[in-house]
Write a structure and sequence with these properties.
By secondary structure, this protein is α/β, with parallel strands linked by helices. About 30% of the residues lie in helices and about 25% in strands. The protein has 20 helices and 36 strands. Helix 1 (about 20-30) packs across helix 7 (about 300-320), helix 11 packs parallel to helix 15 (about 600-605) and helix 13 (about 570-580) packs across helix 14 (about 585-595). The longest helix is centred in the last third of the chain and has 21 residues, at about 500-520.
């Protein structure tokens, strides 16, 4: 998160295509100081399309062809925005987003690929092979249904080009391997033109047609699709086909929003020169299938996008630094390796063709090498010791692990307790709580009270909008933990070095993020303070109102109460792993999504029943439950088997990945009681994982639990029954961990 050179330019990459993935890898190896890199993509991963037929045929698991954009973005020092661009204002340098405020840029590159489909046919009737995500999920669901016997193995593939033929053969292979009754398999390839593979060399066409015949795939040419009604596909010939799964590889459809940008286009695709720059706007570059080079037109093929990557990287750096751009010269022909369903392939170049199992292995090696290039990232450099003599204790205090953000950057519980040990109790009559509770409770009016709290931490995400939303949720957690309703907030922002224009853009994103969460919670952002520092850190001071209700606190738990939890735990471990490039992209996306979930509704449902409540933050679940037990004078039990865990957290804990504050929080384990096997369980470590924007833990009467479970379910929220309080008070409360 540190920035030693001021940010002066914003480079925006739209889409996680092959060329942009290569740019991220190369940028991480040699970034351009002063340039802030942003990647926008709807998903945390991007598929390598060259391995799609192998996925469909069952040769690869989905993970094998997913380019992890989260890891690449972290390596490149780029912020990853999980959203979709829906328009460009090129005059103002703004990208219009589907679900968030505009993003400013000085230079933009577009690599969003293409879609496939038939005009008037909705996805879900005939699944487009691009984009891959929805198609792969639908195909897996269909295979599951076929195996279960709930659907028949009848498939129609629309489009008789190279992609359609390859896909049909992959489907045939998969069904022959999984279908309970192979005799029931019926695959039909539908092509509107007189011939299949109209743009392929005769030798390749001959080999592919022979492969279709061997697999028993029916071919219909001069067969234009006019409509789809349920499982019935209607053709212009009057013929109708029955199919339980329909896929389309027909046509190449550009993104519709490109037509509203004012860019020079060719049939909807961005026209570029040999430097990959737009013919009409010098601040725009485009690559891959979304681009068209009139001086050297080439078919839509991933090989060109891959080869554009290094040239694009060079030219983006050059355009940002007044350097010299170099041309991209696409090869006139390339080696085509096309799979034949099973582990066989056909190769074609210069009109010559050969097939065999060895060619499939060659294709597999090429594909695996490409994926390895994007997934094998050099290790992050460990911080260097200061040169020359250092003070005693420096070596012991230094750590090779990056300092975590969020609650992982907090001061440990022992140091905090020591620092606050001599804090005097309140002297004002209107200050109703003292040291140790979630927030201050102030007398307000006749019988009402106001809750006051603040929080501040270093950012763990380079996305200001998302980071501000998480910070707001986290700060409001203290209000909600006491059963209050948020009222107002003041922001505290420290920005890394950047120009005034970039300061304005960044603060605007932060304010938008704060307001999005505060407004939804019923609170106003009324101002705040900003300053410049070494890195992005954020904080909020917040107030909330308690009208006609007593404030909930750590104390108040009653004998026999049940402990409930409103969010899974483990996000601190996931984000610590992400900072080290060790977390899977979809784990990180799930943790970010979880932190963006408000605890407001959970608080409203619980406060009518809870005797004690707290939010789970820096001290981890065990630490905060221990605080509740101590304040309530009761022992308690936590059941590991009933706790919700963040996606990927257990795997990471098993691998020894922890937040940087873990050595401090885990010292609380000495006050726990557990069987001999429990401390060796990776879930035990996660009890001490610091949570940012964590859920609530409440002590509620046993008779209220079933009603709460239903109420939470009705609101689309999760609720985990994780333990209970003892039936009798205890002078020395003990937390016991069971499984």
């Amino acid at each position: 998160m540190r920035a030693t050179v001021p940010i002066t330019r914003d480079l925006l990459l739209i889409g996680g295509g092959h060329a942009h993935a290569i740019v991220l890898k190369m940028w991480g190896m040699k970034p351009l100081p002063g340039a802030r890199l942003t990647l926008v993509n709807p998903d945390p991963t991007a598929p390598y399309t060259g391995m799609l037929p192998g996925l469909v045929a069952g040769h690869y698991h989905r993970d094998a062809l997913e380019i992890d954009l989260v890891r690449l973005a972290r390596f490149a020092g780029a912020r990853l925005v999980l959203d979709r661009v829906v328009g460009l204002d090129l005059a103002k340098g703004r990208a219009q987003m589907a679900a968030r405020p505009d993003i400013a840029f000085d230079l933009v590159s577009i690599d969003i690929g293409i879609g496939s489909g038939i005009a008037g046919i909705d996805p879900g009737q005939a699944w487009p092979a691009k984009p891959l995500g929805a198609f792969a999920k639908a195909w897996d669901g269909f295979i599951t249904d076929v195996v279960a016997g709930t659907k028949t193995p009848r498939v129609a593939v629309i489009g008789g080009g190279l992609g359609g033929v390859e896909l049909a053969m992959a489907m045939a292979h998969r069904l022959k391997q999984t279908c309970p009754d192979p005799r029931a398999i019926k695959i039909t390839l539908v092509e509107a033109q007189p011939d299949l593979l109209a743009n392929s060399a005769p030798a390749l066409r001959k080999a592919m047609v022979l492969g279709l015949s061997h697999l028993g795939i029916e071919v219909l040419t001069r067969a234009r699709v006019t409509a789809i009604e349920g499982p019935r596909l209607h053709l212009a010939t009057g013929q109708a086909l029955e199919a339980d799964f329909m896929a389309t590889v027909a046509g190449a459809r550009p993104a519709a929003w490109l037509g509203q940008t004012g860019l020079a286009l060719h049939n909807g695709f961005i026209s570029i020169d040999q430097t990959l720059r737009s013919l009409s706007h010098e601040t725009v570059f485009a690559v891959g299938d979304t681009a068209y080079m009139p001086t050297s037109p080439r078919p839509k093929a991933g090989v060109f996008a891959v080869r554009q990557g290094p040239v694009l990287y060079h030219n983006l750096r050059a355009a940002l630094s007044k350097g010299r751009l170099k041309p991209f010269r696409p090869q006139t022909d390339y080696l085509k390796l096309v799979s034949l369903g099973g582990q066989g392939a056909v190769a074609e170049k210069w009109g010559l063709s050969v097939s065999g199992a060895g060619l499939w292995r060659l294709k597999d090696q090429i594909d695996q090498r490409f994926m390895a290039m994007l997934s094998t990232l050099p290790a992050m450099a460990a911080p260097e010791m200061a040169p020359g003599p250092v003070a005693l204790g420096v070596a012991e205090a230094e750590t090779a692990q990056p300092l975590c953000g969020g609650c992982g950057s907090k001061v440990g519980p022992e140091a905090l307790a020591s620092a606050l040990a001599d804090l005097a109790p309140p002297t004002r009559a209107d200050v109703l709580t003292g040291r140790g509770d979630d927030a201050a409770v102030l007398a307000w009016g006749a019988g009402d009270s106001q809750v006051f709290s603040c929080d501040h931490f270093r950012a763990f995400s380079l996305d200001p909008f998302v980071m501000a939303q998480i910070t707001a949720n986290h700060a409001l957690g203290d209000i909600w933990a006491m059963g209050g309703e948020p009222q107002a907030a003041l922001a505290s922002i420290i920005l890394p070095p950047m120009t005034k224009a970039k300061q304005s853009d960044t603060v605007a994103e932060l304010v938008a993020g704060f307001q999005a969460r505060l407004k939804a919670a019923g609170a106003d952002l009324v101002g705040g303070h900003t300053s410049l520092g070494a890195e992005l850190t954020l904080g909020l001071s917040v107030t909330g109102l308690m009208q006609g209700r007593r404030p909930l606190g750590l104390g108040g738990g009653r004998p026999g109460d049940v402990l409930v939890l409103t969010k899974p735990i483990g996000v601190g471990t996931v984000m610590a792993a992400e900072m080290q490039g060790l977390a899977k992209g979809h784990w990180v996306a799930a943790s970010l999504k979880q932190m963006l979930v408000s605890s407001g509704q959970a608080s409203r449902l619980l406060r009518e029943h809870a005797h004690a409540m707290t939010d789970v933050t820096g001290f981890g679940l065990a630490g905060h439950v221990q605080g509740l037990l101590a304040a309530s004078g009761l022992s308690g039990v936590l059941d590991l088997s009933q706790i919700g865990w963040a996606e990927g957290a257990i795997d990471l804990a098993r691998a020894g990945i922890h937040s940087s504050i873990f050595p401090e929080t885990s010292r609380l384990a000495g006050d726990l009681k557990a069987s001999a096997s429990v401390p060796a369980d990776p879930r035990f470590d996660l009890l001490f994982d610091p949570q940012t924007a964590g859920g609530l833990v409440a002590a509620v009467p046993a008779e209220a639990v079933q009603g709460l479970i239903k109420a939470f379910s009705d609101q689309g929220l999760g609720l985990w029954v994780i333990g209970a309080l003892a039936d009798e008070p205890s002078e020395t409360p003990i937390l016991t961990i069971t499984d």
